[in-house]
Design goal:
47% of the residues lie in helices and 15% in strands. It has helices spanning 3-10, 51-71, 87-90, 93-104, 120-127, 144-162, 180-192, 203-213, 220-223, 264-272, 280-283, 286-296, 304-312, 314-328, 332-346; strands spanning 14-20, 25-33, 39-40, 43-46, 77-84, 110-111, 172-176, 195-199, 216-217, 230-233, 252-253, 276-277.
């Protein structure tokens, strides 16, 4: 794989490979676009099978962050970082200090935050050596509840179009992934009276959802084909491809996971199947909004009510994307790209 060619394919500005043998750090930092402002994107800690797999992930995720920030109305660009390795074995204060110093060398071009296997406490340790982080416990804290809230608002907007009402009472939602965001989303859904089907690789998380939320546990091999009104992917990306979407029995797809479509053709295929897909970076932007506001204005005093008001606008943005897709007779995935890229292009000098 040619890194330069892949950067050109996605339109990246900078990709940095970092390594520290002493603490076992191997990471890739990808800055996709800084037209609107400094790049914001969390750090993902994952035991990737290959370096090529990690690079593929970070390039797609960082591009998605540019589109997410733009569509969410933030004056920020997009970036992402991945740490390659087992977080259970490598995490330590020394480890995050080393990583934080690498972030610091970028001089504010990239701000990082929480993501898969990175907690607010981990970000706080990075913050001990660099100011270029967001989402520390002392300021905006864990972004997961806001991500879940945004997905919930997006689901309600999508339901208003697909089902004729934005009430989710009695609607069956299959949720894939019960981490911090997935479980919080389930709580929102259950509170409104939705019926839950759930799966997570962590059996304890499923047992908790069954016990506390009255969810029905589903086997992984049955998940995609389970009968439901809404499928909510809240785990890792690349969930849907041209083959497995034929197993779907839902009418609407929206979740917290990033890059759930293998490629753009899958979005077109879902459109042809009359399955309403709500683009991930439109509905899952709540956490970025929570973290991004403090970067936009370093003097801002954290106000949770203001953050929630900004997050709730995801409802309106979702409706805009659906309307644009209908107007132009294109898939919602293409409409979202057109909408977000239009904002970025309008700000190019």
């Amino acid at each position: 794989m040619s890194v330069i060619q892949e950067m050109g394919k996605y339109g990246h500005e900078q990709v940095v490979f970092v390594r520290d043998e002493r603490v076992g750090l191997n990471a890739i930092i990808a800055v996709h676009n800084t037209v609107l402002g400094p790049a914001l994107g969390g750090t993902r800690f994952w035991d990737y099978a290959t370096e090529a797999e990690a690079l593929f992930d970070v390039l797609r995720l960082s591009r998605g962050m540019t589109l997410k920030s733009a569509a969410a109305g933030l004056k920020l660009g997009g970036g992402k970082a991945v740490i390659i390795g087992d977080p259970q074995k490598l995490k330590s204060r020394d480890f995050f200090h080393v990583y934080g110093r690498f972030i610091d060398t970028l001089g504010g071009k990239y701000y990082t935050a929480e993501d898969v296997n990175i907690s607010a406490a981990d970000v706080e340790m990075m913050n001990e050596v660099t100011k270029y982080v967001s989402g520390t416990p002392a300021v905006s804290g864990n972004p997961s509840p806001f991500t879940a809230r945004g997905v919930y608002m997006g689901l309600k907007a999508g339901a208003s179009v697909k089902f004729g009402t934005d009430s989710l009472k009695g609607i069956t939602v299959a949720v894939q992934g019960l981490g911090n965001v997935g479980y919080a989303l389930c709580e929102h859904l259950r509170k409104e009276g939705a019926k839950l089907k759930v799966y997570d690789v962590n059996s304890a998380a499923m047992e908790r959802a069954v016990k506390e939320l009255g969810a029905v546990a589903v086997n992984p091999e049955e998940l995609l084909a389970t009968d439901c009104d809404i499928f909510a992917p809240c785990a890792m990306g690349a969930v849907f491809n041209g083959e497995n979407i034929n197993r779907l029995k839902c009418r609407l797809i929206a979740g917290a996971a990033n890059n759930v479509l293998m490629d753009a053709s899958v979005g077109d295929a879902l459109n042809d199947m009359d399955i309403l897909y709500l683009p991930d970076y439109i509905v899952n932007a709540g956490g970025v909004i929570n973290c991004g506001i403090e970067i936009e204005d370093p003097n801002w005093r954290y106000d949770i009510d203001y953050v929630n008001t900004r997050v709730d606008k995801i409802y309106d943005t979702t409706l805009k994307i659906i309307a644009l897709a209908k107007e132009k007779r294109i898939s919602t995935s293409k409409a979202a790209d057109e909408y977000a890229e239009g904002i970025v292009d309008a700000n190019k000098k």
